[in-house]
Design goal:
Layout lengths: L8 E3 L2 E5 L5 H9 L1 H4 L10 H12 L4 E8 L2 E10 L10 E8 L9 H16 L4 E7 L3 H9 L3 E6 L2 E7 H11 L7
Parallel strand pairs: 5-6
Antiparallel strand pairs: 1-2, 2-3, 3-4, 4-5, 6-8, 7-8
Pfam family, one: Acetyltransf_3
GO molecular function, one term: acyltransferase activity
EC number: 2.3.1.-
């Protein structure tokens, strides 16, 4: 590719598309749920006005991509990639990744893996990002398990937070092993 990420990503049975205003109530409801909120760096409840301001802020950020996750045409979660430098995301040395899932009828055990694979494929294959970082609470065992399955390595442990990093080579090796779950998708 020419270094420009597609606005919509599809693969592994999921669709990641840019967020639109109609997504905001669902994203806010899921983000405010205890399951998601208590796993975040910022654990306060998000008001509708705060959600709108967030959307207005992220809408024009060249160093960020924010997607609504869909499965079979149904909103199912959220994913993002955010660069560390205020410049286009393409080619950045480091970017932060994040995702969360909503409680929906299309949620299943492999959904987080599918979303992460789609997101990380874009990061490494389309955007040429060198290293992906993420922060996970040390007691968030499901997120730690997911990230380790994807090839992430622990770098630092400060207070209750672990910083994990991922580069292309371990990611592609991990993806190769995970593909058995997605052969028919």
């Amino acid at each position: 590719m020419n270094g420009v990420i597609a606005s919509e990503l599809c693969g592994y049975g999921v669709r990641l598309r840019p967020i639109v205003p109609a997504d905001l109530p669902s994203l806010r409801r899921w983000r405010n749920s205890d399951e998601v909120r208590l796993a975040m760096l910022t654990q306060t409840h998000i008001s509708p006005a705060q959600q709108r301001r967030w959307y207005q802020h992220i809408y024009a950020q060249p160093a960020q991509r924010h997607w609504c996750v869909e499965v079979q045409g149904i909103r199912a979660g959220y994913a993002n990639l955010k660069g560390f430098v205020d410049a286009p995301l393409n080619g950045q040395a480091r970017a932060d990744s994040g995702l969360y899932l909503g409680q929906t009828r299309v949620r299943h055990g492999l959904l987080a893996i599918a979303v992460a694979l789609c997101q990380l494929d874009a990061a490494f294959e389309q955007l040429d990002i060198t290293t992906i970082e993420t922060q996970v609470k040390a007691d968030n065992h499901s997120a730690l398990r997911l990230n380790r399955m994807l090839g992430y390595q622990s770098v630092t442990h400060i207070d209750e937070w672990l910083t994990l990093t991922l580069t292309a080579q371990p990611y592609f090796a991990a993806r190769h092993h995970l593909m058995r779950f997605f052969r028919h998708v």
